[in-house]
Design a protein that fits this description.
Order of helices and strands: EHEEEHEEHHHEHHEEEEHHHHH
Strand order of the largest sheet: 1-2-3-4-6-5
Shape: globular
Largest sheet: 6 strands, mixed
Structural class: alpha+beta
Strand content: 5-15%
Number of helices: 12
Radius of gyration: 20 Å
Length: 336
């Protein structure tokens, strides 16, 4: 398989992005690998490639003869864990995730089947009530709960650790390495450090164990194969961290669509699978409020996972600075 045929390349807002796709030898090797992965499933590429280049990934839609397209994804070295993690999740929680067709862990390559309708597309095409978002969060939280016992294995796959007791150290690294913060902003964040350490200590004391945090679970990162059922994918921002850090992105997207009045329902749905282990509803709400604020640390860290040479073309330092400054904002619900 070669790239001699028609091709559409989308660079989005990153016209000068540097990715491995620009190297002919890498491109040829990747497309040959895709062809081999397809052949292993009795499939053959047929049609124009659609290439999406970003500082953090190369994504290629590959049309397949007689069937739905497949997707090739190349991640930067810091995100090369995504393929192995997706393969492991397909073994551990197969009913919840997309199953890869092929994975090359050493090169950070993965080949994925078509997952059906993105939840975002469903939202654009029909009236979707808030209870679908409740079902989404309930299913996702149940998956996280089931993966608690796998946290060490997940970390051994290369997934970054952002465990609750280690969040102050992660904050220190992000603050020291950021070049976009102004002097006043840096001073405010420095002053926040003692409170952040207290928040982390309290969150850890509430006893909810660390597990897999998707860290960017929005409506474009999951499929909805049927009403009330979802398939999760795109784990490139993931971390092993406090599970409740996952709530914020999804809840904010739902609130943008339906208004802030849906937040209590979403919170209740997400916390439901975590009840019954001796923790009171008040303790779970307090943990959710603390994790809501602290969730920005994993998100800030994920902006550093770009291809070598791409750091000057992406939004990394500026976006990391914005997330760090969000630590100053109170969560939109009382923590009891």
């Amino acid at each position: 398989m070669r790239d001699t045929g028609p091709m559409v390349v989308d660079r989005g807002r990153y016209a000068d992005v540097v990715t491995p796709w620009e190297r002919e030898s890498w491109r040829a090797a990747a497309l040959d690998w895709v062809a081999g992965g397809l052949a292993g499933h009795g499939l053959r590429a047929d049609g124009a490639l659609e290439v999406r280049l970003r500082p953090w990934s190369v994504l290629v839609r590959v049309p397949v003869a007689g069937g739905p397209a497949v997707w090739f994804k190349a991640s930067p070295p810091a995100g090369a864990f995504e393929g192995p993690l997706t393969a492991a999740l397909a073994r551990w929680v197969p009913e919840h995730v997309l199953h890869p067709l092929a994975v090359d862990a050493a090169r950070g390559w993965a080949l994925f089947p078509d997952g059906g309708d993105l939840f975002r597309a469903v939202l654009d095409s029909e009236r979707v009530p808030p209870r679908e978002w409740e079902a989404l969060l309930r299913q996702y939280a149940s998956m996280q709960y089931d993966l608690v016992r796998r946290a060490d294995e997940i970390e051994r796959l290369g997934v970054p650790a952002a465990r609750t007791p280690g969040l102050p150290a992660l904050f220190d690294r992000l603050l020291a390495g950021n070049t976009a913060l102004g002097p006043d902003e840096r001073a405010r964040l420095d002053g926040l450090r003692p409170r952040l350490e207290d928040w982390c200590a309290e969150l850890a004391s509430l006893g909810v164990p660390d597990t897999l945090d998707h860290a960017d679970l929005h409506d474009g990162q999951l499929f909805r194969p049927a009403a009330g059922r979802f398939t999760f994918f795109d784990w490139g921002d993931a971390a092993v961290s406090h599970p409740f850090c996952s709530l914020r992105v999804t809840a904010e997207r739902a609130c943008e669509r339906y208004g802030p009045q849906v937040l209590p329902r979403l919170l209740a749905a997400y916390l439901e699978p975590w009840t019954g282990d001796g923790r009171t509803p008040a303790q779970l709400r307090r943990a959710a409020a603390l994790a809501w604020r602290l969730s920005v640390l994993s998100r800030a860290a994920a902006w550093g996972r770009t291809f070598p040479g791409a750091s000057g073309t992406g939004p990394g330092p500026g976006q990391t600075a914005r997330w760090l400054l969000e630590l100053q904002a109170d969560p939109p619900f009382p923590g009891v």
